[in-house]
Structures are given as structure tokens and as C-alpha cells.
Specification:
The structure is a homodimer. With about 525 residues, chain A is α/β, with parallel strands linked by helices. Helices cover about 40% and strands about 20% of the residues of chain A.
Amino acid sequence: MAEHADTTKCRPQLRIRRVSLDTGRENVVVISRHSSALRPDVFRGFSRVELRSGSKALLATLLITDEDSLVGRDELGLSEPAFRRFGEPAGNLITVSPAASPESLDAVRGKIQGRTLNPDEINAIIDDLTHYRYSDMEIAAFLIGSASFMTSDELVALVEAMARAGTQLKWPNPIVVDKHCIGGIPGNRTSMIVVPIVAAHGLTIPKTSSRAITSPAGTADTMEVLARVDVGVEEMKEVVAACRGCLIWGGHVNLSPADDILISVERPLSLDTREQMVASIMSKKLAAGSTHLLIDLPVGPTAKLANAADAMRLRKLFEFVGDHFGIAVEVITTDGRQPVGNGIGPVLEAADVMAVLTNDPRAPADLREKSLRLAAHLLEYDPQLRGGSGYARARELLDSGAAMNKMQAIIDAQGRSSCRADIGKLTSDIVASEDGEVSDINCLQLNRLARTAGAPIDKGAGIKLFRKIGDRIEKGQPLYRIYAFDHSELDLAVAAAEANSGYTMVNRRTPTSRTGS
Amino acid sequence: MAEHADTTKCRPQLRIRRVSLDTGRENVVVISRHSSALRPDVFRGFSRVELRSGSKALLATLLITDEDSLVGRDELGLSEPAFRRFGEPAGNLITVSPAASPESLDAVRGKIQGRTLNPDEINAIIDDLTHYRYSDMEIAAFLIGSASFMTSDELVALVEAMARAGTQLKWPNPIVVDKHCIGGIPGNRTSMIVVPIVAAHGLTIPKTSSRAITSPAGTADTMEVLARVDVGVEEMKEVVAACRGCLIWGGHVNLSPADDILISVERPLSLDTREQMVASIMSKKLAAGSTHLLIDLPVGPTAKLANAADAMRLRKLFEFVGDHFGIAVEVITTDGRQPVGNGIGPVLEAADVMAVLTNDPRAPADLREKSLRLAAHLLEYDPQLRGGSGYARARELLDSGAAMNKMQAIIDAQGRSSCRADIGKLTSDIVASEDGEVSDINCLQLNRLARTAGAPIDKGAGIKLFRKIGDRIEKGQPLYRIYAFDHSELDLAVAAAEANSGYTMVNRRTPTSRTGS
């Protein structure tokens, strides 16, 4: 290793050139095959290299090219992320040498072989990760090595290391509440109702949300229909000082950069472990300065948690980590058998939210009730409130219009959105193929259909449900309507829905007393 | 998944353009940021995409560019490996869509979660791997998932799947012998002596070897000093038909393409598991049509195996797999406490080999003895040979010049090398800092020093040892000589050697009777 590092001293220097290659999160650099700095067999295409200029160093993946227009023989082309992170101007001198792996990889290898890691090792791993010293492969090694077994001490150390790696928010208030749902349920935009209620009561609730990754909408995508959500830390603090709450995208606040990196590898691998989920959520809440946290675990056959036992195990893990860091964590399980609200896709969901906040009689009752229930839990964190009166207080704030006024104030403080907020002009109804009662709705299939229709890229694309579990329907009546902007996308979504509507019906000859949940 | 695949139908078509980007093994494609086929948020930089043209499909990693010189708006740039593997001419039409993960990844995820895989699942994984459908990250997932635990059934299925994925050689002879060393010991070019002896006796020994990956020389690099080694399957068969043996690089024979891919990920991660090692070696031997195999396991403090217990476990694993496939496997442990022979680096090692083959009195005795011992084991696979007479027969073939004649025939059949075969003109001697007896030689450090001096890129760079374990030396006498072509590389190697010569001395006041092994 030492020898490798030393050899950079005598390597020819190249001039930095900025090349417009968007390589996602990866640092990629391009070198000419005729470069004097390139020694065949030392550097291979896609091998890892270390860039150096003075005291600055960066690890990157190497591409070798014959395209003279891209880089000259005495140049090194830095792709967008590499150029930004290296922070040296174009034209400056730089050396390139084979990269040694980060030392913390020894700990990762230890973990793979079944060793337990100490907090220093975990800190070193997270530090190297956050500074882009790990390749995707090395990140995968850490994730998979940790997937099979992680002690509670390791989990706690991981949460702490991840929370310390990014922005750490401090608030002047003794009580800072937050809510989090583990996701997976279409619709379900409770945060956009809970935050205005809780802020209207006077509690501090600085909510950051994610954008859709594999779903048709994240809370940030839906809120963006109404307001700007690309808000940084300073502006976030101003909004919270003015309104007690906010509803912004977490991407500019940088609460857990390590988590963003880990997720970018977990996602394509579809790795989903309880410990990583808890570390991801709790590191962000710790960094966000939350003192009281409500976690929503939807349970249902097509939800992330299939049964109460899974939910219980996850609850214990959240509580354990919360206790360790002095965060009051309350975990509740909710009905995850079907979508919450009627809209799926940012614009349609935003319409549901505004219908609830404006007490529109056509507002989806399930979204209203679930939001009130969650708000009730959060309100009872207020020591001034009598035990058991949270729900009544939440309903009072919603019914009186106080929550809607607060939402308007938050929208004004964050700024109006510049997004297109119209609903897809192309529509098609998916109808029941027989008489019956809705017994099951497949959340995964509805998410897929809404994405096929164009959500969340087209904010107004998506699905509006006309029936929920327990509702009776006759053959030929619409189950839901698909909205799109693009003919071919509508056709694809309709074809997919006709193959699998996501709805299961039972044909009950005798009308039953069962109603929608 | 079905929806994803279908959406390709309506995607705009792009024209294939070949772009000169050497991206190693990875399929990389480049698209213009202004392309009509690019939908932001669907494709991100470095995301995985699927290319389609008619019935052809290929998975690749996407780069997005603003560089108009690289790709136009209606073009898709295919990097070298992607262009070669897709096999469609430039200008043809192609669609690009987000890639679904290979289905066999479900089995990989199962393995990560502790499930045992059946042969069909392992076959599907190896098939997808071999067809470049796995990203590096996904390959790492498989390796790490298998690293913690693999049943013997899984190992056998893996060996078989890997062997079937590439070239499978058939030989007209009932006995096809082979030898393999797990590596790690500098020098140690026994194959180049064993193959001529065994072939001179009349047994078939079609030997393929690797090039250096992390060492200063592989057998293929050293043989290349004397003969062409970039030999394909048909030519290999001709050489073996003419000479009974060959000494070629395995890279063009493609015996286990899956192994080449796995190794390219194991190496940067420094993953080293017994099961993967056995799968790697045995899949190649099975594909190579070997009937009798001798495995050399060097044991020593800086060898790959530190003690006899480790070697025993590995031996059992080789024997188990060999028995399953009907390959007669013999595993022997050898002295891995120090380099074998005096030279380290291709040209210096080739000189040792030729000194042994020509019975030069200055030839290194340890290399000669070890080669005779290995050849003796192989010769006894000949049913015509009396038990116990293998060693005598090997020595007879070596001493008589029959082995040297065979080596010349092999060199002639493979063709003369076009490589530079001179020894580095720049030299520096590393001397003993005190009187004493050599008690230890660090193989890892000598490998590093030889690489720093320029081996294997400069074939004539490396190290020549003057002392081995048990030899007495006086202060100021040379331990070894470093050879290089480049002043700065010589300086770096000397500086590194002065910091750590790799030699440990004990100062025995009384001369002892201990001699070099």
C-alpha cells in the first residue's frame, strides 16, 4: 500500500478537464489511451484510481478512451460528480495512480467473515462511504456483510455514525416531534395533514420527506404540487420559525448522506433488512434533532410487513434504538391492506389531501381518520394536553380550518410550486369483470400501474380509486380510472390493468353486513 | 417486470454508434442529455439499462453526456465491450429502457438471507453472470452471500455450472494430467519444468496458466519470455498433439468465463474463501478435461496457507470435489516459507527455469528438487510406471536433456516470443545490516518490491536472491539485487527495501548445523 501511494510522486501530471458525463453518484474519470500517464496493465478500464493534487485526493473509476475530442493526451477528464467533489479548477495539474482500497474495508471483510465490529470500525466505514471512497461493489459488500447479522451495539454505532456524517439540526424548542411511515402503501399522504394539525396546535414538527424511488409518488413529490420543496437547511429553519412546521424534500438538507449512498446500492439489489431500515430512519431522526417520534407500520399482504409478528420485531428494534438515544419513540401498526385515500400519483394525492384539509364532504374518510389518529398520538406529546384528548384536539384543529390555515402558511413560507399541477387529460376506466365485493387490493400492482401511466414524472398521471375493500360492485362498473399524458403510456397501463387489475372480488350471493375498513 | 419490458416497444429508436471507451468488463453506453429517448428520472447516470434490437438484448450501465462530439441526440454510444457483445453494426437501430434485474438475483437474495440454493438456481446465476447480465454490485452480492456458508452440494453445483459455461476440452487420451499451485510464493515456476518432464515421458499435460494479477509474475508471464502464450483452443490442441504438453495463457481458451468474472470482483474486494478458490480451480480443470490432478499447497507464515490445519481443510475440499467429478486429485503441501528459485520477475524466473532444464550447476537446487517431486507424483499416474519409481524417472528425463528437448519443442510449437527478454539495466543491491543467519523471508514483501521495481510490466525488472533461509551472512553483504528499467522505480523499490528488506536475521554466536531447506 505504502509503495503504491509513493509511486504517485513520479507519475506524469495531467491537466484537469471537465467532461460532461453524468455518472450518477460514481466518480468517473476519462484518460486518453495515448496518455503518458497511462501504463497498460497498471490501469485497466473500469479499475479504481486515486487522483491527487496537492493535499487533495479522490477515488474514482477509470475509463480509457481513443476519442480525442473528449480528452487530450495530457489531460484527465473528470465527470460531473468527480469534478464537483475534487473541487480543483479545470487546467490545474493532477496525478492519477492505482487506488488502494480504503483501510476500513478490512473491517467489512471481517464482518463478512462473521466478526462483530466496534464503533471505531463502523465510524471509519461510514466516514469512507460518505467521502465517496467506496465503490458500489464495496458498498454492497458492507450491506450484505451486515445483512445476515448485526448486534444491537453495532446497530446503535451505525445509527450514530450515520447521524454524525451529515447535517445535524438543533432546535430552540424542548419538544420536536416527527412522524415516519415505512412506506409501501399507495396514497397514504398523512404527513401533509398531520403536520398542519400538529403545527397549528403549536408543537414543532420540521418534516423532511423523500421523493419516489420505486413508488408512483413520495410525500415530497406530492407536496411539490402545492409548494416548493427543494429547500436547504437555512430556509428550512426560517419556515419552521415562522410556521412551527414544514413539508420539504430531505435531499437538500443532507441529514444522512451515508444513508443516501447506502440506499442507492440497496435499491438495485432489493436488499431490505430490518436493521438497515431502522438505521436509515433513526439516523435521520437523530440528525434532525427529533425528541419525539411516531412510526407508522402498515401491515397487509402486499405491504412491506405481512403480519403482526414482523411488525412486532421491527417495533422492538425502533424502540431499542430510540431508548438508546433518548428519543421517545412510539410505534403503531396501521391497516396496510389497501391504498389510503383515493388518489395515487402526486396531483391526485394532493387533491385528496386538500379535500381533507378543506373538510370537503367528498374527502376520503380513511385518509382523514388515519391522519387524525396519527396527529392525536403526536399531540399527546404536549405535556399541556390532557391524556386521551389528542384525538378531539386534532379533530378540532382540522374541522375549524386551523389546519388548513397552517397549511396555507407553510405553502406561502416555502413558496409556490412551479410544477404543472393538472391531471392527466387521457383517461381510461378499468371496470369490474363480474358482480361481487372487493376482498383484496394489491398495493404493489397499483403502484406499478400508476408508474406505468407516468407517475411521478408526470405529476398528473396516476390512478383514482372508486372502490375499496368491502365495497360491492356490479360487472361493468369502474373500479378505478387511469390518468396519463402519453397515449402509449396509457395504453400500456390499461393493458397491464386488464391483465391484472390488482382487485380481488368475492361473489357473495347474500348481501353481508361487512363494510369498508 | 412485464410492464418494463413492454415499454421498450414505444421508446424512440436510436442509432448505434461505437465509442472508444475502454470500460474493462462492464458494458457501458452513452446517451445525449438531449436525446428523445432519455426521460429524466427514468434514467439516471450510472443506472442499469437494457438495450434491444430485434431479438438481441444486452444489459449495460448508462452514462449521460452533453458532449455532442461523443453521441448525437439520435444516437446511443456503445463502449468497446458493449459494442463487441451486442454484435450489431454501427448505424443500426436500438432501443434503450430501464433494466430489470436478472431473475436469478432472487436466488442471490435468498442466499444472503441464509437459504441453500439448488443446482437450477446456481446454473441460472452462472448463466446470467457469464452473459454479463450482472453488475459488479450484483456479482459482489453473490460472492459475499456465498462467502459465509456454502454446502457441499452447492459447491459441486457451482463447479459444474462454471465448467459448463465456457470451452470444454476433450482429449483423445485416457489419461490427461495437470498440476496447479494456489500461488502466493515468489519464483516457484515449477510448471515450466514439470510440464516438459511429464510430456517427455509421454503423458498428456495441456497446461494453461494465469498472468500476474497482484504478483510480480504469473507462469504465463514468465513463459512469455520464451514463447508465445496467447494461444487459442485450436492452436492449443495442435501443440498438445505435437508435444503432449503446452504452457499457454488461459485467457484465450475461455475455460471458465464465469470464474474470470468472479475473480475480477473478488480481487478488488480481497475476498478469499476456500469454497470460491476450489470452485475456481476445479471448474477450470473439469472444463479442461483433466483426469488426474496434482494440487500444490505451499504453507508458510507469509504464504496463502499459514498452517497445516488450514491446508488440511482445503485438501479435503479439493478431494471431495475431485471425487464427485471422477477426477483423481492428489493434494500435497510444500514449503511456502520463502521464494522457490532465486529470481522474482518474468525474465529472472525464466533464467532459473532454463538453468534447471539445462542442468546448469548454478541452477537453484530448491526449484529443481520441488519440480522433480511434483513431476514424480504426476508420472506415477502412468500405469506402466512401477510404484515409487516416479522420482527416478523424472530425474532421468531432466538429467538426460529429454526435458530440455521437450521444452524446446513446446517453444517451437507455440512460436517464439516477441517480448523483450533483457534484464533490467539499473540495479541496486540490498545488503545485510548485521551479521547473522537468515531465519525468515517475507514472501509478500518481496512480491511488493518486485512489483515496485516494475515487474511484470517490465519483464526484466525484479529481484535476484543471494541468500535463503538458513544461510549465514555478514553485515554489508548483499541479500538480493533489485533490477529495474526506470530510475524512479528503482529508487522507490530501494527505499521500500531499506525500510523493510523482507529478511529476518538471527544472530547465532555458535554456528549451527541448520541449512537451507
